[in-house]
Amino acid sequence: MRWLPWHPMAYFFSRFFLSGQASTTETEIGPMRLTQDPIQVLLIFAKEDKQSDGFWWACNKAGYRCNIARTPESALECFLDKHHEIIVIDYRNPRHFDAEAICRSIRATKPAEHTVIIAVTLQVSAGQEEASVLPLLHAGFNRRFLENNSIIACYNELIQIEHGEVRSQFKLRACNSVFTALEHCHEAIEITSEDHIIQYVNPAFEQMMGYQKGELIGKELTELPKSDRNHADLLDTINTCIKRGKEWQGVYYARRKSGDNIQQHVKITPVTGQGGKIRHFVSIKKLCCSNDRSKQTYRIHHDEKCTGDQFQSDSHSFRCKNRRKESIDAKSITSQSSDATSLQNHRYSSIARIHSMTIEAPITKVINIINSAQENSSVTVAEALDRVLEILRTTELYSPQLGSKDDDPHTSDLVGGLMMDGLKKLSGNEYIFSKNMNQNQSVPVTISDAPPCIAHLLDNEESWDFNIFELEAVTNKRPLVYLGLKTFSRFGICEFLNCSEATLRAWFQVIETNYHSSNSYHNSTHAADVLHATAFFLGKERVKGSLDHLDQVAALIAATIHDVDHPGRTNSFLCNAGSELAVLYNDTAVLESHHAALAFQLTTKDNKCNIFKNLNRNHYRTLRQAIIDMVLATEMTKHFEHVNKFVNSIIKPMSSDESNSNNDSGDCEYTHSLKNFPDNQTLIKRMMIKCADVANPCRPLELCIEWAGRISEEYFAQTDEEKKQGLPVVMPVFDRNTCSIPKSQISFIDYFIMDMFDAWDAFAYLPGLMQHLANNYKHWKKLDESKCRSLRLPSENNLGS
Ligand code: AMP
Ligand code: ZN
């Protein structure tokens, strides 16, 4: 091998690498730590002389490895073998070899990209012009060294080169590993200059956007088509921010070459370079899960070498983590002006902070669980879960959006009238309550002392078909106190409350007195009816089996008080009228809050009627809470929430438990297991009082018709008053001159009753009620079809005839 060291000491040095002196050096480039081996130097000198010796010994002194080559061929061969960092070529004597040609031949090789080549030239003699180094540079030399055989001069030259260019080149070579990483990265990466000229895109970027890198590199981002689905303000704001050197991340719509819009999670990082200025923007992009998956299939092909597992993680990396951060990619940044306000910046940095918070609300947990499930699910399942997430993110989870039923004015009026609070707010005259100040009338202390006609009627009190209107008639519109005493006695309420029957009677009297007998529907007969239905439901095996005695007591008390002091007007009316109550309860669950609050005030303000007076504090608080919860559950704005929760938590698990037989006597393990879950008991109690409250369409036909007439009359009276007072008419279809009661009942049953009673029947087993409901529905349908318009007022007493 001709390039082997020729010097007597050379063999020793090249074999043992100047042992004791040759050492590795540690260098850092960015966050990367590199270890640099001892420098290798190739001396290309045709003949040994003092100059070549000078370099040789200088290498020795500096701890570099050194080779010497005598001919152009051996020089090239040696270089290709060792890849020296520094090459010194003797340029002094053109007769020995063509130094420029050697330099060019070496430069032409790939490993020479990072090599420093020095030309040793003759000293400029006195009076001679200094020659330009340009021809040398053009030939591929990096430096010129003026002949100087002093070892220290050679040494100085070499170590300056090492600390300067060699070290820089070494760092640059390390960047190749970084580029390799970028090329294989699954996230799309784009690097632009500070003025948004694309400098680099990786293969994942090409695949995501559908472009070849040749079509992108060198282009300004503004030249590429943008998606029009981004918020214009946002782009300005973020542009301003990243230009200030801050990183931005979030969601952004980009347009693929094909024209498709895709939603990406984008992180844009400004990179500071020379002069401490921003020199690049690096954008890292992942697809959001909300993109149409059918359009995303391209992303899974790009790494064909992936194993199954790798592929899995590939798709993971693109699936979104459900962050809904507003964002941008560099494309839009360039196209947007940067005059956004600091207020906007503040707003967006707040959004970023909020997104980084872990709010452990149950809904957050649910969303997180779904997100994790998406990670490992098929595209079909992930798509379905995307839709689930969309729904969960809406606030009104339990309010159905009116679809085709929307077209029916009866339904939309009922829904609007019963389910909305204070939507049509007007400042107007306040509604003045007309209190029912029925004169006290003697009521027996114990129910066993009731007059025979009443006692006789009450014998049938446990039957669903019990006629509450007859009781209303024989009690002179005081059915609540009589039915109440009988029912409460049956359920051992006085024993539970540790109160006398006299106290209970006084309480019923106070409560009944505070119902308005002037209301055609919301009077104490309705309260008695709801109490009757509640007691009936409590007698059902599954209901009884899943509730505790305290729940039964709470349910019966709640039913009794649930509409006390009802003004015969809806919540919407009170809100529109700016009534005292609406103001007091901030237009929210106005009546229901009032019923519960007033009932407790009436009960506790006088010991004579305070049925709670002997309860200990804990019992009282638990009972009070259960009562309030049930009364508030009668608010119709929450109708679908309560029904859906009941179905999801009680009915669905029950149906999947095949051991449960759906019959009245089935006292199964499931029912008892419900007792262990207070939340489930709460759902059952809410559902029970809700069903009891609107059970009138499930009563025998003649009772159902009477109730329909009464509620209609109350609505008509409200419409009359709204018109009179110039208030918004909440339910225009309930105009006494035009209303079709059958239509309104069909709508009410379709929209509120049918599903709810299906669910309640599935739990409590109520075949009798369901039969009535079906019959009644048929009745209204028949009437509607025959366009019978004679059903106007209950006083006409010809409802349904
Ligand atoms: P509450 O005010 O507690 O009795 O709540 C029940 C709601 O259902 C009330 O807004 C009633 O007006 C309404 N409602 C009850 N029965 C009927 C019916 N047969 N037709 C229309 N609305 C009814
Ligand atoms: Zn009611």
UniProtKB/TrEMBL annotation:
Its cofactor is a divalent metal cation. Gene3D superfamilies: 3'5'-cyclic nucleotide phosphodiesterase, catalytic domain, 3.40.50.2300, PAS domain. AMP binds at residues 522-526, 563, 693, 745. The active site is at residue 522. Residues 1-22 form the signal peptide. Residues 181-245 form the PAS domain. The keyword DNA-binding does not apply. It comes from Pantherophis guttatus. This is Phosphodiesterase. Its EC number is 3.1.4.-. Zn(2+) 2 binds at residue 563. Interacts with RAF1. The interaction promotes RAF1 activity. Binds 2 divalent metal cations per subunit. Site 1 may preferentially bind zinc ions, while site 2 has a preference for magnesium and/or manganese ions.
